[in-house]
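Dear colleague,

Thank you for sharing your sequence with our group. We've completed the structure prediction you requested, and as agreed, I am returning the results in plain text so they can be pasted directly into your records. Please verify that the sequence below matches your submission; if there's any discrepancy, let me know and we will rerun it promptly.
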Amino acid sequence: MNQQVDKKVFNVEDIIIASHTIKDVISPTPLQYNHLLSERYGCHVYLKREDLQSVRSFKIRGAYNRIKQLTEDELKNGIICASAGNHAQGVAYSCHLLNIHGKIFMPSTTPKQKVNQVKFWGKEDVEIVLVGDTFDDAYEKAIECSREENRTFIHPFDDPEVIAGQGTVAVELLNDCPEKIDYLFGAIGGGGLMSGVGTYLRHYSPGTQLIGVEPQGASGMKESLLKGEVTSLTEIDPFVDGAAVKTIGSMTFNICKEIIDEILVVPEGKVCTTLLSLYNENAIVVEPTGALSVAALDMYAEQIKGKTVVCIVSGGNNDIGRMQEIKERSKIYEGLQHYFIVQFPQRPGALREFLDDVLGPNDDISHFEYTKKNNRETGPALVGIELKDKGDYKPLIERIKAKGFLYREVNKDSTLFQMLV
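Please find the predicted structure tokens below.
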């Protein structure tokens, strides 16, 4: 999937040059000490707030740096890109600023908020094409179109100028951090951010442990490093859309395998719990990818005690329409939301018996729907039960069995869950 790039080998000097190229376009983002997280983990936690960037993600850095290097001949027929949404905004912003026509391919599943933002930043200078279900689908169509229309393709991660632009995040955080950084956590989708940031830190802060974080449903870098080569995933969960990539970059793979200390894989449900926590406890609005770095802290709780930690909050382009799904995924991950298909016995009052004798004092029915509309008296029903404490799950199951209700746990059947919930 990766294009060949005709350029010298990427190095730290490219990042320094990029920081001068983009300085008048990007907004330097704050490195904020977070008291709540620091107290929770017994360390010093700083958040690099790329969600406060002009386009609410770090992607503007790499996109503008790459586009700014293009020659007149490369710009003659306009440019083109594929993106899950944030790179698209960076490209759109750059197109309008530099008066360049851009064609932007995004998956049909892209949150509406991101699509609207691309339109806002690009205005009349960009054309948006929604196609396919994943970034990789959009990528293939964009490459095809770039050949047909002879447009210059702006890769979202596997390009030295893009990587250099993303690396400028590290220039800022090293300038701003008052302490030696022991650990840095950053999201990995295609690998551009950690390739750039990691390269800079390896040179100027060699003692910093570099931890890449991927969503469980799209752990392409982890899989590739385990196999020793770029490995395409056959299926991905697109929920953490900014990091949902089937095939990482060949250049980013080669960089990350040399500089990254560990890749952590975080379940999507944990990402949702962290996203809600950042909002409720810190008034920080992030998208799922933006929560990845903070979500990984639990997995390193012992190692980071007493240390200085930086988490890159990579983006804040979250669609409010997704919040219900985010809450649902969080509750399921935390063991507080359970779904069952219950076959009620053929006797009067069975439903009332279920409510009175099966539900605990703190349990709530969050969903109830007969699966056979023409047999409501004795037919099976999809029942959602919300618990206040995950410890209430075992007693709930015991009561269901004791009362003789036939049931099936939907949570434990992924195919059934996707069909019904």
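Summary note from our side: The first helix runs from residue 12 to 21.

Kind regards,
the structure core
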